[in-house]
Amino acid sequence: FVSLVFDGLTGGIQDVIRARHNAQAYRMMYSMNIWSYLWVFILIFATGEIYGLYKFVKLYPYVMLNMLLLGLTGAVGQVSK
Length: 81
Description:
By secondary structure, the protein is mainly alpha-helical. It has two domains: about 1-45, no CATH class; about 50-80. The protein has helices at about 1-20, 25-45, 50-60, 65-80. The relative contact order is 0.06.
């Protein structure tokens, strides 16, 4: 639920930033992704989810390739728009 709310807010926030600061599209995507990464990095440690992730990857190591491919296809999808 929270993810859907923030996903819905992102477009509106980006429109406001673009209007105020004349930000370029790729710079905007880069900045939003960096901030998202930082928040997720902080929260994954603060909530202890990192330990569950570690256990899961240790049990199913082939999932690392799937995560890498998911990240790559997401990046290509953002750039190809």
